[in-house]
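B., you asked whether I could sanity-check this one before it goes into the benchmark set. Here's the sequence:
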Amino acid sequence: MSDTKRLADEIAELRKTVSETLVNDQVKERAFDQLYKELRQYKDDFLFQAEKPLLLDLLLFYDSLNWFQESLIKQEMSPDVIADSFQYLLDEFLEVLYRRDVMPIEQSETFDRKVHKAVKVAPTDDASLDYKIAQVLKRGFHRADRLLRPEEVIIHRATGGADSD
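And here's what the prediction gave me:
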C-alpha cells in the first residue's frame, strides 16, 4: 500500500507540476501577445511619424495641382502663363524632393554606365559624338551617394570604322 500511496502522491505532484506549467505557459503566451501588439503599434506609429512630413509635402503639392486645374478651368490663360505655371509646379515638386535629399543627376554630355541607362541608340558618322548623350528621356535621381533611378538616355554611336564595346 505504501507503494500505491507513494505512486498516487507522485502522480498528484506530476499533475500539479503540469498544471502549473500550463498556467505559466498561458501567462507567457499572453505576455508575448501583448508585447507583439505593443511592438506592432510602435512600428506603425514610427512609420507614420517617419512618412508624415513627406505626406504633408505631397498634400501641399496636391493643393497646387488643384489650384492649377481650377485656374485653367476658370479663365483663359495665355500659353506663356500656362507654361510659367506649369514650370512653377515642376519647381515645387523638385523642392519636395530636395527636402528629402533627392537630387537630379548632374547633366552630362558623355554616357556613364553608373548613372545612365541607354534605351536607344542614335547612329552617327561623327566619331567625336560616340557615346555622347543625344537626348535625355527621363531624368535620373540620387539620394546622397545612392542611385534611385538611372537617367534614361539616347546615345550617339559612331557607325563604321572602329569596333566598339
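One thing to flag: DSSP finds two helices and six strands in the chain. Otherwise nothing jumped out at me.
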